[in-house]
Queue: 4 jobs
Job 1
Amino acid sequence: MSSIKQQLLTLCRQKVEASLADSENAIADARSAVHNETKSSAGDKYETGREMLQQEIELHMTRIAELRKSIAALDLLECSYNKYVGPGSLITTSIGTFYMSVGIGKLNLHGMEYHTLTAFSPLGKLLLGKTAGGTVLMNGKQIQILSVE
């Protein structure tokens, strides 16, 4: 397994787990706020505040479910070398370097910038199954695949 790919996998896991912890803390805070909310003479204002907090809780619960799916996807990630682009691949292209894993944005490692993408993203779908030396066309722009690890 490439040490760069292993380090990127570790960074992905850390970023997803940090987001998971943030969402869990936000739910705890919102639940606490719901319980601490006191009914005022303006009943509508009280009900509106409780409803907004409930919606915030539901939003974070949805986010937590998505983050847990991302952790499961990271657990299944294959980081061994494969000449074809697939989950776990490190792809160097004419427009940047991509790590096919979970879509969590940019990662910086040893002064290099890596963009994460999933196999289901628009670019990920185009790259899937390709090899070094191949090209894909996205938004009218030709992208050359320089290497696949």
Note: The longest helix spans residues 3-36.
Job 2
Amino acid sequence: MAFTSLNPIRGKGIKEILVVDDDNAVATFIADVLNQSGANVTTAADGEAAIQRLAEGNFDLVLLEMVLPGIDGSGIVEYIKTRQPELLNRTILMTGDRYHLATIRAISECNLPSIFKPFDINEFRSLITITLTSSQQTIREAA
């Protein structure tokens, strides 16, 4: 199934997505894939920039690298919990650090959807779709 046909990105209006990754090549790749799907993508290369973007923007989804310079992914998750809790269930954690116990523990403690890099693009697309769809279902149930 082509990502461009997936309803949560295309069918419900343009999505505003924040991609937080200190690896410019990864951030650019993710932004390109999401832009092709009709999303508007903002990027941040470190924790401080991510928090600034979150404070200034209104995002439908956050794709968050856990290992960052300065404020790490766990710190950004705490910011989201306290300042924008409605965004928490629309946050996906990413990392290429699959062997460092502290990173694995942090991902587990956050209890959010996560994916390890390098990832399969179709698996990544499915995770985004599931996260956005689940979030929309939760909003409908709360109403």
Note: The two ends are 31 Å apart (CA to CA).
Job 3
Amino acid sequence: MTENVIKRIVNMEKSNPSIFLKIDMICSSPANSSLLSARLIMQALSISFNKLKIDERLCVFEFYQSLSSINKLNDVFYSFLCVGHNPAFAIASDHLSNSNIVDLPTAAWLKVQFNQNQWSKVENVKLTLGLPKEILK
């Protein structure tokens, strides 16, 4: 990961601290780039490393695996941050919201809001997209 990418990740999180308040858990794929991104985010926002969970289902390119990871979360969690670098996140987000997200560039974030009380029933979500080219002008 280049120094510019690291700076972009940290600056995106610091530019949007309200998006990351009250995070109950951070899920990351075991890929080195995802783990480094998660660590950078946690350090930038002073989030405890005890909240990190590594999930191999986030490392695959099948969006159903990413959805499965979300659907199997314990309902005691109110919010979570999912860190990964693959097209499955964009496809899963599109599937959940019927949006037209084609690509999530490095350091981009998606805030997903929904009215259900159970992770297993997540659908019809409202998405807010944070893109580096718009936020870090």
Note: The radius of gyration is 14 Å.
Job 4
Amino acid sequence: MQDLAISSDALNDLRATAWEGPQTREWGPIFQRSLGWVCAHDDDRLIGFVNIAWDGGAHAFLLDTTVHHDYQRRGIGTALVREAAALAQERGAEWLHVDYEEALEPFYRACGFRPTAAGLLHLDAGVAAADAHINPEGI
């Protein structure tokens, strides 16, 4: 189901079953900037979620793909990703990106993604650490 209203509490409860650490994010501001999102339910219980972020143009990004621990390995994650891809395309995106841990590569390959080279800067580590490696000539 696409773009349904979801409470932050329901989404944080779902994420707590699949992610480490406390899940206390306020999701309203995130949804306001999203291209869309897809959910899976078992009756009224939220059991799956994926958010589609975007750059306002051709590129969309899957974020926070989550399936409740008790419902994993049933094809729910694959269905969420495929529906998210269709929604992103329907809303004008030409490319769909996803970052994932190495262990999830088989899952995302099965969903049609191919690995690409990409860069990542952990901002909590401080931009100064990144600046220390910049050539003064900008190369």
Note: The mean pLDDT is 87.
